Amino acid sequence: MKKNIVLVLSFAAFCSFSMHAQNQEQKRKIVNSYKESVVEEKRTNLLSKFRVEKQEAHELAKANNRPIEGVTEDGRAYSLQRVEEDGTYIYYITSNAGSRVTARVNDIATGGDLGLNLDGKGVTVGVWDGAPGLDLHVEFKGVEGFSRVNMKDALPDLNRISQAALNRFVKGRSHATHVIGTILNKGVNASAKGIAPEATVVSYNWEYDTEKMDLEASENGLLVSNHSYGVAAISDDGSVVYVRANDFGTYDRSAQAFDWITHTYKYYQPVVAAGNDQDYAGKLNPTKNGADLLLGHTVSKNAIVVAAVSQVANYTGPASVRIAYFSSNGPTNDFRIKPDISAKGVNVYSSNYVLPTPVIGVPRADAYATFGGTSMAAPAITGVIALWQQWAIGNKPMPFKSATIRALMAHTADEAGDAPGPDHKFGWGLINAKAGVQVMLGANAGVAIVEENELMQEGVYEKEFIVKESGGKIIATLSWTDPEGLYHRNNSNENYVLFNPSLVNDLDLRVFKDGVEYYPWRLNKDFNNLFALQDDNDVDNIEKIEIEGAEAGTYTIRVSHKGVLQDGGQEYSLIVSSADFNNLSTEEFELNDLSFSIWPNPVVDQLNVTIPEEIQVQGMSIQVFDMTGRLVKNVPTLTSNQVELDMKGLSSGTYFVKIKGNGVDKTERIVKK
């Protein structure tokens, strides 16, 4: 039976646009939108100090006979990044055709079920790894034979480096070439075809990664990047533990730097591998029953952290998805849902780099290898994001903000794990590239909502939708790019963090019907009893409400916030649809766009109210009340759908605007500056 749903939108922002493909003008607009948001003092404090600390760490390592770089016995490249105040040496280490199947990419590619041609063309992806990838690989060729991989860091002189350094370079470049291939292999070898086979890559080594990320985002409008490396936790044979147990799940300076970059550059989305330490959970963090194994930038609020699963040839339910034995579990110390998502990371076949003989010779351009790890899962997600942004670039005036990308990811993920809702193993579930595009298409057709808005201090944003027939499932997802949190020693103190989470701006998503309040998912805050429940969420910057068997009637979606919003407001993305993504374009989901707009909020002098043309305004009124309930403005009879209210004579503070009549009764909170 089809479930007919009508969404009646309230207080929506108006916009108009024309369709166009990605070009330099669009990149210029992205870059220009960042100009006023960059605070040089923060850039210096959060990013530049890593360079000084690395130099100091190298000197300390030499003095204490500690390695600076090398290769583990199981073939992972590593290099020293810094030494913490407590003496902990922080090393970066690599986190070593089924990816397309598992991620449901074939359905949105050329010849797929949706009749689209999404292949990543026109989208540039950043890849940071142990070394730049092999740009000459046959899988990376583009127009007129030129490589689609641009090496942005110089290669070392292989004749002049030590054997140990040479080994590390080979492993790092092999790893990077494999990762890049998962993103954009052309398909010369059909079994190795990448997720976005026409995308391009800028390829960097991982040294001073955050400085380079800042540069690419601020000057080139980079939309997505892949980071298949992380902090080394244990030696490859399990004999030496490099970090303390209370380092896991801690919001450190790497996480803080990633969050500053993403909050500053709102279109930019980094994707990072969760890590491969699960097999050593009992030794690394023995009191957590296999949980709490995330380190460094995997604890970032705004990065997408990826878990690894085995190939899913045909998803039929949660039991179809099997976590890889090595994939590191979350959550964070403040019980945020991390990892965020899962993708294939077991037995991934892709391009490879092999050291030539002699070393100054030309490398093979047709080498391939099968690797496993969350390193191999992350680029599948990166490739999907490239495809989603390709669609946005061709159908919207601007690409999606990163908050929208994360909302799409969570909104459309296939359920995984032993119980409904998110968890600390799979995150929101298994990535579903097809469902994400179906929601985008549904929004264009008016049968789903994909919105980017801003909530101001004391603001409340509401929408209404009507379910005509009972029994369907409704999903509402809210996401925002949160400002960087505070970094201090107490972040590793779990009792402290339990009451002082890293979240800065705490938005809230709710759905109401007939006095019933529906809550978003969150994790139970107990490492010994981790499960998802539906309750107030005060730690995550993704909130998702699922209403199973929704009864017929009118529902209200509300976005609000707790406390004080940093900078007086928070941009957010909201997605609403039925859960049957395959039928969004049918009569199952009918959207009536009856939109009220009240702007600007906060207001200085003049408040504008727009009432939809479909509504007859004769007999309607607009009233403005102060916090005490006193009527301060009154328009008893409307004559136009566009109303201007003079607010100059009112004191600064919070007011309520009430629009009433002809079956309409809407109230919006505003702030007068």
Notes on the protein architecture:
It contains 11 helices and 32 strands. It has a 7-stranded parallel beta sheet with strand order 6-7-5-8-10-11-12, sandwiched between helices. A 6-stranded mixed beta sheet has the order 19-18-23-16-1-25, with no helix packed on it. Helix 2 packs antiparallel against helix 6, helix 8 runs parallel beside helix 10 (433-444) and helix 9 (402-412) packs across helix 10 (433-444). The longest helix is centred in the first third of the chain and has 24 residues, at 40-63. The radius of gyration is 25 Å and the shape is globular. The model is unreliable at 1-22 and 586-593 (pLDDT under 50).
Tell me the strand percentage band. Answer: 25-35%
Count of DSSP H/I helices:
11
Structural class: alpha+beta
Assign the CATH class of the domain at 26-379 and 414-429. Alpha Beta
CATH-defined fold name of the domain at 26-379 and 414-429: Rossmann fold
Number of strands: 32
Largest beta sheet: strand ordering: 6-7-5-8-10-11-12
Mean of all residue-level pLDDT scores: 89
| Percentage of residues assigned to helices | 10-25%
Report low-confidence residues grouped into runs of 5 or more: 1-22, 586-593
Radius of gyration: 25 Å
**Main β sheet profile:** 7 strands, parallel
- Just name the CATH architecture of the domain at 26-379 and 414-429: 3-Layer(aba) Sandwich
Give the CA-based shape. globular
Kindly report the name of the CATH homologous superfamily of the domain at 26-379 and 414-429.
Peptidase S8/S53 domain
Distance between the termini: 51 Å
Name its key features:
single chain; 673 residues; Rossmann fold; Immunoglobulin-like; 6-stranded mixed sheet
